[in-house]
Design brief:
Layout: H1 5-17, E1 21-22, H2 23-29, H3 40-50, E2 53-61, E3 64-71, H4 75-84, H5 92-100, H6 107-122
Antiparallel strand pairs: 1-3, 2-3
Length: 123
């Protein structure tokens, strides 16, 4: 699944909030956006069709009810899927080597990763 820039801006809000949001909630929390308020309905429907969000229930606003939506995956799962959904997939070892060379790869992160690998081996 590939998301547009506007869809990613909406997903960033869902990922940051980590709770179901209504259309109005989403508009309130979308500070830096490139899309118009009037197009939020189209963007939400597109995200629903792509499976990036799901209907999570309803919320009462004044005298009417509105749907709430929630992300179907975390930011990390989205990016992991995005890497491997293309025709030219990277080799797993090369991808990890490149990640290990990143400045964000601290000793603490490497220790956490080692723990994850050890748990995975035991499972």
């Amino acid at each position: 699944m590939e998301l547009t820039k506007s869809e990613m801006e909406i997903m960033d809000v869902f990922w940051a909030e980590q709770v179901p949001l209504s259309r109005a909630d989403l508009l309130e929390r979308s500070k830096e956006k490139t899309w118009k308020d009037s197009s939020v309905h189209i963007l939400l429907n597109s995200l629903l069709q792509k499976g990036a969000i799901r209907e999570a229930g309803f919320i009462r606003r004044n005298k009417t009810y509105g749907r709430t939506f929630a992300a179907t995956m975390t930011r990390e799962v989205y990016y992991a899927n995005a890497i491997f959904c293309h025709r030219h997939k990277p080799q797993m070892e090369g991808l990890f080597r490149a990640l290990l060379d990143r400045p964000e790869m601290t000793a603490e992160v490497m220790e956490d990763l080692q723990d994850m690998l050890n748990r995975r081996k035991r499972a």
